[in-house]
Amino acid sequence: MSTPVQAGLYGLLVLVLIGFVWAAPYVPTQDGPQHVYNLVLLEGLGREAPEVTEHYTLGTLANPNLGFQLVGFPLLDLFSPLTVERIFLTLYLGLFAAGVVVLLAALGRPPFPTALLALPAALNFTLLMGFYSYVLAVPLLLFALATVWHLRGSGPVLRFAAWNAWGLVLFWTHLVPFAAFGLALLIWPFAWRGLLAPNEEQLAGGEMPEPEELLKLAPSLGRRLRETVLLCLPMAGLLGWFLLRGGGGDIAFWRLPHQLMGDLMFFSTVAISSLQTVPGVVLLALVLWGLWNRSRGSEPRLDDVNARNARLLGDTPTRWLAMLALGLVFVYFASPRRFGGGGIFNERFPWLILLVLLPLLRLPSPGLLRQAFGVAASIMAAVSVGLSLWLLWPMAGSVEAFVAGRDLVPAGATVVTSRFDPAMVCRTPGSSPWPRFDPLLNAGAHYGLDGAVNLGNYSALLPHFPIRFRADASTIPHPLDAYCRAGSMDWGTWPVVDYMLAWGVDADDAAVLRRSFDPLEVRIGSEASSPPLSVWKRRTAAGRSEVRR
Question: What residue ranges do the domains of the chain occupy?
């Protein structure tokens, strides 16, 4: 399979992904609806809408988790909230596809077929969880790494400006890729080939450095370290400011090693169904094949020095990214699941590690093996993308069915989502581990786009988002309690809830809800039906002041 064909397939699959974003009735992510709703709340707070200010207030905007807000909020003046979400996801997919190719090309690697190995990670677990700011920051990190390498021979002023410009962008987009960028810069002095090179004349003459010449390693390393530290001082100041203002948050439990290894093996690409392990195994095999080829010997470096010195000094981009990948793997295994005040910390790393590993892969020599590698990568990418979209489409239909009751909830009314069938976030022992996300958990936020007030807004309970619940506002228990245990709660004690959006209610569940609510008929299209969604209206107009958070 020729390189132009592989490049064409790469572009076609990216267009297919973007086409899904625009063709699906709703993009089925877990937290995505909540982030879109928060954009609407920001706009409502700006114009002091009473139905918004009664429940919400503006938190601090100085948080390194603003990627989605910085892109999406200015677009609200021109497009509907759901269109803004689609534009954002299109931007993410475009940057993802371009960033992989740019990084490979910048480091002197042939982009194809290697770039095809990245496509299964485009629909990674963190994207499906709806971590929009994070997924935007990762492809930006690829561009930042390419910039660092491209400017390796430039003067300190230009590198200072470029490094810190990318640091500033990454910091405000999301803290984790910013930290990965900082780690890459700290590694930079140790990876640079000049550390072991006494002078260019020796290299050009093909001489091996004498042992005493290696003593020059220390001052060379010291100079590079000092220069790097000075160039990174503004970024260090940003991180210090974040930590000093109490951005560290809490630390909780660690995931088991076999769970972490399972995620890393498939690079966050198995999140919807066990069927995804099939292309996942092929992806892992191709990555290991490429790394094994690399370990068998270094390719000539970019400056064409002789092979003996190339083996001694190592390939600088390989050394740099290998050290960065090892650092990310260490952080992945050594960190708790909650870190820095944020949850699901470890799961953010596997697909980032894959993208960093791609420039390290060495394709087989031209011939049948190289052709086989390209064909396998192409088939794997096509199967993975096609399978993922096939699995996601019915999930988009479930979200559409959940939103079918929007016309029954008036603007300003409060809504809460509850689930009575087994839900993924409320999994029972022995239940399937897939899918690993629940697109209905925050689907009630879609009602907020039409003016309702979503009380299940988990992000308004956390300090990492610009929207917060008012300290004196009536609200509900934690959104997960309402979602997972609605059938065991006495909703008469929570009169702040005007409407209950219930999924999978049976006769026994209905008897519980009837104590406080009356059912409303939900219609899909022009015909009455019995959808999994049922909408319940509070029977009495109890005051909201008796419940405080």
Answer: 3-30+61-391, 407-538
